[in-house]
Amino acid sequence: KEGLILAALVMAVLVVGIWFIYSSVKKEVNLAQIKSEFISNVSHEIRTPLALISMYAETLEMGRVNSPEKAREYYQTINSESQRLNAMVDKILNFSRMEKGRYKFKTEVCNLYNICAEVLGNYQEHYNGADISFNADSLLPEILADKVSVSEALLNLIDNAVKYSRDNKKIEITTGHEDRMCFVEVKDNGIGISKKDQKHIFDRFYRVTRQNLANEVKGTGLGLSIVCETMKAHKGRVTVQSKPGAGSSFRLYFPVIRKSN
Ligand code: ADP
Fold first, then answer.
1. From the first residue on, what is the mean pLDDT of each consecutive set of 10 residues in the chain (261 residues)?
2. Helices 2-61 and 68-99 sit at what angle, rounded to 10 degrees?
3. Coiled-coil region(s) at which residues (predicted)?
4. Which residue of 1, 83, 187, 241 has the smallest Cβ count within 10 Å?
């Protein structure tokens, strides 16, 4: 009888051991796959602007552009594509700094409404073709925030709302407060996200793979991870509500500054 118990124990240890080895190998394989997808996504993101820049620069250099209007158009494209490249490199560097805890968050007393108004004021024309409305509560309690990273997080949400919408690019931005938290919401009428994918979209490098718009849209899978890191640093949180085909809404919640009496 003792022999049987011993054999059962050995079997159990063996099964647990094999399962442990299997799951760690699977994790490694998944990680390697995610990393290689990230590299291929970034390469794709770099290739398009680079190709445009070099083609336009070469055409200009060879004196093949006759009209000054056309030349201006080419210079503008070179400029905007360089900015796109710059923004992407910034995104990757910022993520890496945040992840290592090396990003310097410079917090100050602010009003979330003002941050949103400034971001929209600066970037509204960048999103031409999208119908962005800002229905916000300006009388918000104050929060402690690093304006630069919060603006960046908000821009990531707006970028996604525009990117993952089809023809109906109607995007609503609202601010408000509840339970000693201030929030900003970005709501779109785009392709939406399934419940299963909602669990992973904040993971680094994660991109939803589906045979539709999300596959055609370029990205690095870092935007929402940056949003997540930023909210952690602000002791806040990010939430998502979404339904495939019906759109998504993301909210950033910040704790209100407690006034001592
Ligand atoms: P990226 O947009 O570069 O792929 P993100 O981290 O910003 O990376 O987003 C991760 C994934 O979440 C995206 O690939 C996309 O599938 C999904 N997603 C994010 N925002 C939205 C949205 N507003 N509507 C639909 N899907 C979204």
1. 86 90 86 82 86 93 90 92 89 89 93 94 82 88 95 95 89 93 96 94 84 69 94 97 96 89 54
2. 160
3. none
4. 1
Half-sphere exposure at residue 83, Cβ-oriented, CA atoms within 13 angstroms: 6
Ligand 1 neighbours, Cβ below 6 Å, are 156, 160-161, 164, 188, 190-193, 201, 206-208, 214, 219-225, 248
| Nearest atom within ligand 1 for CA of residue 192 | 25
Pocket test for ligand 1, best of 98, 164, 241 (most atoms within 8 A of CB): 164
pLDDT 10s digits, 33-44:
878 888 888 888
Collapsing DSSP states into helix, strand and coil, what is residue 107? Answer: coil
